[in-house]
Every structure is written in C-alpha cells, then in structure tokens.
TrEMBL record:
Known function: Catalyzes the conversion of pppGpp to ppGpp. Guanosine pentaphosphate (pppGpp) is a cytoplasmic signaling molecule which together with ppGpp controls the 'stringent response', an adaptive process that allows bacteria to respond to amino acid starvation, resulting in the coordinated regulation of numerous cellular activities.
Recorded name of the encoding gene: gppA
Key words, A-Z: Hydrolase
Homology family: Belongs to the GppA/Ppx family. GppA subfamily.
Residue ranges constituting the Ppx/GppA phosphatase C-terminal domain according to the UniProt record: 316-489
Protein name per the record: Guanosine-5'-triphosphate,3'-diphosphate pyrophosphatase
Taxonomic source organism: Neptunicella marina
Pathway(s) annotated for this protein in UniProt: Purine metabolism; ppGpp biosynthesis; ppGpp from GTP: step 2/2
EC numbers for this chain: 3.6.1.40
InterPro entries linked to this entry: ATPase_NBD, GppA/Ppx_hydrolase, Guo-5TP_3DP_PyrP, Ppx_GppA_C, Ppx_GppA_N, PyroPPase_GppA_Ppx
Alphabetized HAMAP family for the sequence: GppA
Keyword Signal: no
Length: 503
C-alpha cells in the first residue's frame, strides 16, 4: 500500500493544468507528461457568458458572477490533484473591463485556493499564438485569429515567435448583446455588426497586411463551429469567405435567433454563432484572408506549454508520428522505406500538380509513415482499421482538414479504391489527395519485399491524369512479383477512372 501511495504521489508531479476564465466560457485542460509527450487527460468547458453580465457602467451583475463561482467550485475539486507550481489560472477580456472585477476575483481565488492572473490583451494574444504554434506545425509566417466572448486577438508569427499582435474589444458575446439583442437575425443586424467590426479591424489592418503569411489559423469556437457545419453539409474544405456569406444567409433565413436551426450547428454554439460569424466576415474582408484552417490549440495550450518550455520540439509533426509509431508498433524501417520512395516520386512531379497553400508533402509523409497503423488490429482490412484509428487520434501538428486528407489517403493505400472517400472534399483538394493516394499505392508496391535492397532509378511523369512510371530496361522482367503487382495496380486505378502505365 505504501509503495502504491508513493508511486501515485510521484505521478502527480507530471500533471499540469491551465484554467482560462473567458468572456463566453470557462475552460480547464489537464495534461500528463509521459515519455517526452504531452497527453491531454481531461477537459472541462462551461458556458458562463460572463460578458453578458456587464452593464452600461462596465460592472458585472451578481447573476453572472455567481455562474462563474459555481463553475470554479467544480474546477476546484479537480485541481486538488495538481501541484500548485503546475497550475496556471488566467482571466481575460471581461475581467479586464469590469470595474468590480476585484469582487469576482477575490472570491474566485478563495474557491480555487490559487491566484487568478488578469492578463492583458497583448499577453493573451501571445499565449494564444504559442498554443497554436505548439499544436499546429506552422509553415512560415502564420496569421492567427481568436474570437473570444469580449475580445478578438490577431497575431502574425513565425515558428514559436509572434511578430505582431493586437487585441480588439469586440467579441461574440458583446456583439450579441449590442447588435442582436432584439432576437432577430435580420440582414440589417448582420450589416451593422459587420460594419462595426470592420471599423475596428481597419484601424489595425496595416499592422498585419504587409506580412506575407502562408496560412491563417482560427483558434476559437466560431471557426470550429463553421467547420463542423461545413462537414455536416458535405463540404470538406478550409473556411472561405463564400462559405461565410452562405452561412450568414442561412442565419437570416431562420428569421429569429430562437429559431436558429442550421444543419451541423450544435445547440451549445447557437447563441453566440451569428455575432461571431459577423466578426469573422469582417476579418476576412478587411485582412484579405483567402482561407482559414482550425488550429489544434489556443490560450490554454499556450499556458500549458509555457510551463513546459523544455518540452519544445523543432518539429511537432515528427514527434507526434514517432509516438504513434511506438504506440501502435509500426515497423518504422518499412514506413521509412515507403516514405522515401513516395517522396522521390513527389519531388519529380512538377509544382503545378499541387494547389497553393496545400501541404501535399506533409500529408504524404504522414500517410506514408502511418499507413500500416491498422496492422495493430489485424491484417486483412488493415487499411480500413488505419482509417478508423486516424479518425480519433489527435495528430498534433496537422489541422483538421489535413488530418482528414491523411485519413482519406491511408484508406485507399491498398486493395480496391473507394473513390467515395474523396467525394466530400472541395474539388481543388480532391485532385491533390487523389494524386497523393496514387503515389503512395505505387510506393507500397515497390517496397513489398520489406528490405533495404536498392531500388532502381525510376522516372515518374504525369500528363493530365495519366501517370507514367519508367524503369531501367529489363528491371521489371527480372522482378516478376513487383511486375505482377503493378499490373494489378494498373487495373485498379483504371477501374477508379485513372490511367497508370509503367515500362
């Protein structure tokens, strides 16, 4: 018994928690650090809508404070197991604005038995960027946007360093109270909210537009809700302005906020959705954003990793893939063979094959490294088991859309080709992942012997949708197994509507 208690006490030293007292929701995330990896073991979120309790004099009413205190009582029980030095609690926009914030904070600190830091908008933006950087591998300069309940943070950064950041006093809760308080989802209400947001964004646009960011990441509930809606409605793509305008019209068609019913919009997200959507439209139009992806983390994750500075890895993706390879007993040597072969084909194809801002190389590498993850379950349908596992694994360093692309490629790396797996993707993405799938299938065949014998120098080319693979003279005849497998592959790709030939 004493040994068990000692081991339990030791394990607590590896638990960390971050609590974010936001203007719309209170969040808590708990992680365990094990074998050099950060594993989320608990998340709690409660809708408090603290910002809705601000009156015209910027004082919080007692009802909103009580909702917050009730939530903190629940949090307090959970953090009893967390060492004090491994816990950070921060408050954001509403408690920056409230004149009587001290009343809430004093009692809140008594409930948690831990200090609550009211961080500035700039510090919040900094921590949000770190949360995104640690959980979503950045490709060059990245624009990060977080729409909170009472503030919106905008950051441009590169790697783990924010280069420019700001915090604006506009959020989905405060804009809900200001522009949709009559309960109507009218075109006029949307126009007023969008115009007000654009006026604020226009004042700081020149701080961000000159940066040549390569991707935009959304780190808040509104973009997440939009992605869930798009997927439910059959659109598997990044967030684009045309989709935002379409969703605004879907809101308007519902007429009343109480009757808001959009396919894919969860009940818990309905209240602040129209106001958050209006702010996002303004951001897209004022900052000339073409597309936005969902980040893997935000403020809470930034706080966690800030306590774990020694955990920083230069390549989050490699760390995540290595951990999965260990966890699911993937044959790493074989995965590396397939990856190298597929990468060789990728590098030979012209850049025009790939859409701008589509990380084809990163998706191909992940799919190649993880394509045998389903063998952990059984052989016969291990490509389908792999797709199932990848549907639920949190693959850090990749956005949701990128994870969906990886899963679609892995689903089809062997046997019959399920073209339906590509149907839900936007046409420009579909074209890319189909080509990646074809490359991976051929690479797997060429590595079928699972040894390090040198492969011949092969040339690959593409003309429209016709793939050509050229071997040295006599090589295929000398390797009848691979020749037969490639012949079968030609037939399978032909059945899928693609042409492939080799000689």
């Amino acid at each position: 018994m004493s040994n068990g208690l000692a081991n339990n006490a030791l394990s607590q030293e590896h638990l960390y928690a971050a609590i974010d007292l936001g203007s719309n929701s209170f969040h808590m995330v708990i992680v365990k650090v094990a074998a050099g990896s950060v594993q989320i073991i608990g998340k709690v979120k409660q809708k408090i809508r603290l910002a809705a309790g601000l009156d015209e004099n910027s004082n919080l009413d007692m009802a909103s404070m009580q909702r917050g205190w009730d939530c903190l009582h629940a949090f307090a029980e959970r953090i009893q197991d967390i060492p004090k030095e491994n816990l950070r609690v921060v408050a954001t926009a509403t408690l920056r604005l409230a004149k009587n914030a001290d009343v809430f904070l004093q009692k809140g600190q008594q409930i948690l038995s831990h200090p609550i830091e009211v961080i500035s908008g700039e510090e919040e933006a900094h921590q949000i960027y770190l949360g995104v950087a640690y959980t979503s591998a950045n490709q060059g300069q990245t624009l990060v946007i977080d729409i909170g309940g009472a503030s919106t943070e905008i950051i441009v950064g590169e790697d783990f360093e924010p280069l420019q950041l700001t915090s604006l006093n506009m959020g989905c809760v405060t804009y809900l109270e200001k522009f949709f308080s009559d309960g109507m989802l009218s075109a006029a209400n949307f126009e007023q909210a969008i115009s007000a947001a654009k006026e604020q964004v226009s004042q700081i646009a020149e701080m961000f537009i000159p940066y040549n960011w390569l991707q935009c990441m959304g780190a808040s509930g509104t973009p997440q809700a939009i992605v869930e809606i798009l997927v439910t409605q059959g659109v598997n793509d990044s967030i684009r302005l045309e989709y935002l305008h379409n969703l605004r019209q879907q809101c308007i068609d519902c007429v009343k906020h109480a009757d808001l019913d959009i396919q894919g919009l969860e009940d818990s997200r309905k209240q602040p959705f129209p106001s958050g959507l209006a702010i996002l439209i303004a951001l897209f139009e004022e900052l000339n954003i073409e597309e936005m992806h969902i980040s893997g983390g935000a403020l809470r994750e930034g706080l966690i990793y800030g306590m774990l500075e020694d955990m920083r890895e230069d390549n989050i993706r490699q760390q995540a893939i290595f951990q999965l390879a260990q966890r699911f007993h993937i044959d790493t040597a074989q995965a590396l063979r397939v990856t190298a072969t597929a990468a060789g084909f990728y590098n030979q194809l012209p850049a025009k094959c790939w859409s701008a801002n589509f990380d084809a190389e990163g998706i191909l590498q992940a799919a190649a490294m993880l394509h045998e993850i389903g063998l952990h379950i059984e052989y016969k349908s291990h490509h389908l088991h792999a797709a199932y596992l990848l549907s639920f694994i949190d693959l850090q360093g990749y956005s949701k859309l990128q994870r969906d692309c990886i899963r679609a490629v892995v689903t089809n790396f062997r046997q019959q080709i399920d073209v339906g797996a590509f149907a839900g993707f936007h046409v420009h993405i579909r074209r890319n992942i189909i080509l990646l799938t074809r490359i991976l299938r051929i690479a797997v065949i060429l590595c079928i012997r699972r040894n390090d014998n040198a492969q011949p120098s092969m040339l690959i080319a593409i003309n429209d949708d016709h793939l050509y693979l050229q071997f040295p003279p006599g090589w295929l005849k000398a390797h009848p197994l691979i020749d037969a497998e490639l012949a079968n592959e030609r037939w399978l790709q032909h059945k899928a509507g693609w042409e492939f030939s080799c000689e």
